[in-house]
Amino acid sequence: MISRIAPSILSADFARLGEEVRDVVAAGADLVHFDVMDNHYVPNLTVGPLVCKAIRPLTQVPIDVHLMVKPVDRIVPDFAAAGANIISFHPEASEHVHRTIRLIKDHGCKAGLVFNPATPLAYLDEVLDEIDLVLIMSVNPGFGGQKFIPGALRKLRAARERIDATGREIWLEIDGGVKVDNIAQIARAGADTFVAGSAIFDTADYSATVKAMRAELAKI
Ligand code: DX5
Ligand code: ZN
Fold first, then answer.
1. Is the pTM of this model over 0.90?
2. Which residues are within 8 A (CB) of 142 and not within 5 positions of it... i.e. 6 or more apart?
3. Mean pLDDT, to the nearest integer, of 42-59?
4. Is residue 52 scored above 90 in pLDDT?
5. Which among 5, 17, 18, 145 would be 20 to 30 A from 26, CA to CA?
6. Which residues does ligand 1 sit against, CB inside 6 Å?
7. Other beta carbons less than 10 A from residue 28's beta carbon
8. What are the CA-CA distances from residue 139 to residues 65, 108, 133 (Å)?
9. 173-183 burial, b for 16+ CB within 10 Å, e for fewer?
10. Cβ–Cβ < 8 Å for 114, 135
11. Taking the alpha carbons of 130, 117, 164, 86 in that order, is the dihedral positive or negative?
12. Is the pLDDT of residue 1 over 90?
């Protein structure tokens, strides 16, 4: 199975963000994970479309926007215009989940649905055929550097079964507490796309860390 590493720039040095994006892509990142927080849906505040637009010319890799905002729809066209490739959102933050998925796709982006630790996968009963990515949160959203919640493994296995049953290409992404020493176990549960913030940006050599993650994934 193809594995993708998606460094979360939430843990980057924001005073040198452009350089950090270039460095992490040079280190082998497959995506740039872009965490958007609004101090309303989650208790933290980060960056918006202006910053997405600013980093867009620096890299060819897809920008994977993770919206932790409520409401969702107002800001979707702005991220599409700012060069986002994937836009994911939390179903609790949208009044009309199906409409939001269609909105994202109508703006030319791939659409992802995000599941908090306490959110059941039931939404997939209705919209799995419409989405391109399922994102399982293995921490409660809002902060980098939290500990992986083991219950996410069971949820990954359940999501993997549902995805495989469709026969469609739907990415299964995990976000929160992913490290070199647990990435293999997470992959075995079915994830193919791995967000890692502090595990990469808190190390001195991004390239060595990404390589160590890939070496773990190669063992599977
Ligand atoms: C948390 C964010 C994550 C975060 C992950 O709300 O969605 O993307 O940056 O950080 P780590 O990898 O440090 O847990
Ligand atoms: Zn995220």
1. yes
2. 37, 42, 43, 44, 68
3. 98
4. yes
5. 145
6. 8, 10-11, 33, 35, 66, 139, 141-142, 144-146, 175-178, 195-199
7. 16
8. 17, 29, 18
9. bbbbbbbbebb
10. yes
11. positive
12. no
Average pLDDT over residues 121-148: 98
Q: Look-up: residue for tokens 């399982």?
A: 136
Among 50, 57, 68, CA closest to 8:
68
What's at 18, amino acid-wise? G
pLDDT confidence of residue 80: 99
**Residue 199 pLDDT greater than 90, yes or no:** yes
**DSSP H or E run through 184:** helix 183-188
Q: Which of 186, 219, 217 is nearest to 2 (CA)?
A: 217
> What's the sign of the alpha-carbon dihedral 83, 23, 28, 191?
negative
177 Cα–ligand 1 center, Å: 7
